[in-house]
């Protein structure tokens, strides 16, 4: 990359970029106590697991392999539909399509909030737009907990799930780690970017709900720079370096942008095959357009937040809503007439500054019951 290892604490730098937004914007939080070598080391204890997966069993899906062996199995081709549907379509339902992201359950305060998340009706769906946590087991525990409550759970990976954290017994890297996460989700009846896109038939539907995994390619360059190398150098000089540089491995790709571009090609193919008569809800961890990053306190951080190559996806792929997280700046904006929802919970010190108990679930479609 042409740069030396981080000039100061990488974990702190990632957190510090979210200390707030520029004047006129929303204050989003402050520094969290983490370092490159002890990033989010507060690990929740493993709670008792509910082993039953009634929806899967009811749909006639074979019970998964137990434990880690199942996770290490290559991603199966046959998608799992927890609702036993035909090609992702289900009968019209009531209820709402909710979304949340950046639960960061390694923080006890966030774990408590997640424990309190409940649907309003039995038909509610929940989008989980990445950064559930860093440890494989904690991600599984959380998604299983949510799947037990919501009619359908749709997950996309965030950068934190893709980290190979030094304290995680699951040491998989890069694409193998992503494949294992997908397998784990399927074992638990959670939909992923690798499954057929489901259709929401409730209020505001029908719409195709498309979970995307597109990563980033450093094209949201730091101001005044024109190459990745310059942009990264600017970030290192400023001490604003995403922990991904140390923990998000691109294997087997040579670098993260190559993985990103492969994901974009595959995702474009999937999106092109969706029903052209239906609008979409596009779900990703990283924003599809750059504008939401304009309010970052540290503009150097934007290079880890997306890719210019998705700038028109919300238009080309008929989005009525684009859901994302990652920035830890929850808000609603509009781009080209399309509603964008940043649905992050964020770190305790961020949401704590906003006052009151956070209610991180955002209604994307549907009406209050
Ligand atoms: Fe996050
Ligand atoms: Fe993130």
UniProtKB/TrEMBL annotation:
Molecular function terms, GO-annotated: hydrolase activity
Bias (Basic and acidic residues) ranges: 9-19
Domain Calcineurin-like phosphoesterase: 99-330
Ranges where the record places region Disordered: 1-32
Coiled-coil zones: none
InterPro entries recorded: Calcineurin-like_PHP, Metallo-depent_PP-like, Pantetheine_PDE
Name the record gives this protein: 3',5'-cyclic AMP phosphodiesterase CpdA
Organism name: Micromonospora eburnea
